[in-house]
Structures are given as structure tokens and as C-alpha cells.
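Record 1 of the preview.
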Amino acid sequence: MYSIEFEYLTHAGQKVPIIPIGIKEKGKWYELWAFVDTGATYSVFEAKEAERLEVDIYKGRKMMVIVGDGVLFQSTSIR
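->
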């Protein structure tokens, strides 16, 4: 087994674990940036990323999500 290390990025004045990832959708690869949270049940991305991946967010299930800093917001679960 091997590991890859990334430097933390600065976002809004704080160091955060954000890394580039690749997602393959409909035979095409897309690069986007993801927040690494090893304890998370879900990964959350902005709606504009779903549009870019041609994923119809309106077919997903609406749900309320609480993130690590306690903020509550509405999201859509897509599988």
C-alpha cells in the first residue's frame, strides 16, 4: 500500500484539507476540488459541479445536512 500527501490549502484564512480529485461521468473525466473529511457519511459538492458533470440534482432526494462546524443546510442526495 502507498500513500499520497497533500499540503493543506488556505481558504478563508484557515488551513483546510482540500485536494484535487477526478470523477468519471458518462465516459468523461472531470477534475474538481474536494474537502477531505474521513469521518463524513456523505461528500458535499456545489450544484454547479453537478451541472458540469451533467447530473440532474432534481432527481435526487432532498435532505438536511449538518456539517462539522454545526451549520445546517439543505442538500440533495444523489447515488
